[in-house]
Amino acid sequence: MATPQEILNDLKNIPYPGYSRDIVSFGIVRDIEVGSDAVKVHLAPGGANDEAVEEIRKQVDARIRALTGFDKVEIAIEAAPPPKHREPPRRTDIEGIKNIIAVASGKGGVGKSTVAVNLALALKASGKKVGLLDADVYGPSIPLMLGDNSDSGGSNEGDRIKPMLSHGIPAISLGLFINRGQPVIWRGPMITKLLTQFFREVEWGELDYLVLDLPPGTGDAQLTIAQQVPLAGGVIVTTPQDVALLDVQRGITMFQQVGAPVLGVVENMSYHLCPECGHRSEIFGHGGGAKMAGESEIPFLGEIPLARQIRETSDSGQPIVVSAPDSDHAKAFMALAQRVQTEVEKHGRMDLPLVH
Ligand SMILES: Nc1ncnc2c1ncn2[C@@H]1O[C@H](COP(=O)(O)OP(=O)(O)OP(=O)(O)O)[C@@H](O)[C@H]1O
Ligand SMILES: [Mg+2]
Fold first, then answer.
1. What is the DSSP track for 175-200?
2. What count of other Cβ atoms lies within 10 Å of the Cβ of residue 355?
3. 116 alpha carbon – ligand 2 mean position (Å)
4. 267 with 286: CB under 8 angstroms?
5. pLDDT computed for residue 352 by the predictor
6. Between vectors from CA 65 to CA 60 and to CA 70, what angle results, nearest 5°?
7. Which residues neighbour 154 within 8 Å (Cβ) at sequence distance 6 or greater?
8. Which segments of the chain does DSSP mark as H helices, in order?
């Protein structure tokens, strides 16, 4: 008789519809119960569409019948968790700030900060007033990426905090404060207090967009941060080598839980453009982000190439959008900014009056 582990191993032969990866590695198979003449499998296909769920169900059924010889194969499909609460779009309640956009990722190192910084600068280049808030209190990297202008900010003026001003955008980051030599262990309530100060006590001025760089991951820590203020929407960053539907799904769930629309998915390090000849090579096989966005029924916001220039310009505090605005790389970020604005407008935030 087959054991649950043997059945699980066998189910690894079933690819997730449209992907080369299998349903087990996507985490869809939750439980397998083997009886004397029957097998029950619990599947949690997340936000997969009905067609994909049916395809998975059929294949699981066929494989288990073939492996065990049992006629009774029961497949329980767990519905995607309903959003905890869906509220009508709320205005930002921070005076002077029209739209707050959070940039999130399921995993670290996918280029979330790079995307947040260049997205902010691209929005600025398209004529908007933009600020950047480094909500990654665990690994703040915005001061480095914007150029270390920490002398221009982080100071208190009366009871307001002055943001650093870099490439024409105000930015705030814990990095501005810890660089000044005060090691602090950050605990949950302190982080909440710090972020409240970042949102409400910083002199942001009038902003069309405030871009948040969230810490990597979509767990409780990120949720707590995303809950601090009403968001106009969330942008999820992924990479083709690590296209994990479930990670994106978790990002979607996180934004739903705070009542924020998901503006869409960006695929970073998507393809490589040869700096010499302009040849485009798809090192990791790109396009997973678009496919995944389609399956999760959320917009695909675009692809950002993998390029040494993007890394070097970020590392030296001169992000590509400002240091080489005519490059193809910068244009990819400009296109991203355009789509983000379109999505925000679709969700009806732009025309709302500010709350004073
Ligand atoms: N499109 C790209 N092309 C080349 N290098 C990139 C690209 N995007 C990001 N990088 C590089 O990858 C590294 C990680 O990027 P980044 O710090 O933006 O990721 P992150 O998701 O914010 O990471 P963390 O989880 O640590 O916050 C950096 O060295 C960055 O310069
Ligand atoms: Mg980062």
1. HHHHTTS------HHHHHHHHHHHHH
2. 12
3. 9
4. yes
5. 41
6. 135
7. 161, 162, 163, 164, 172, 176, 177, 180
8. 4-11, 50-68, 112-125, 142-145, 175-178, 188-200, 220-226, 245-257, 288-296, 308-315, 320-323, 328-346
Instruction: Collect all residues with Cβ–Cβ distance below 8 Å to 233 and sequence separation of at least 6.
Output: 99, 101, 102, 255, 260, 261, 262, 263, 343, 344, 347, 349
Query: Counting Cβ atoms within 10 Å, is residue 347 exposed (0-12), middle (13-18) or buried (19+)?
Result: middle
**Ligand 2 center–CA 308 separation, angstroms:** 17
Rg of the Cα atoms in the chain: 23
CB 304 within 8 A of CB 339: no
Q: Does 306 sit in the ligand 1 pocket, CB within 6 Å?
A: yes
Q: What tokens appear for 100 in the block?
A: 């707050």
Residue numbers of the chain with a pLDDT score lower than 50 = 84-91, 349-356
- pLDDT (tens digit, 9 = 90+) per residue, 293-329? 777 678 889 889 889 999 999 999 999 999 999 999 9
By alpha-carbon position, which residue is closest to atom 28 of ligand 1? 311
The ligand placed nearest to the CA atom of residue 271 is: 1
Residue 69 burial (CB count, 10 A): 10
* Ligand 1 nearest atom to the CA of residue 308, by list position: 4
C-alpha–C-alpha distance, residues 245 and 251, integer Å: 10
- Domains annotated on the chain, with CATH: 4-77 (3.30.300.130), 97-346 (3.40.50.300)
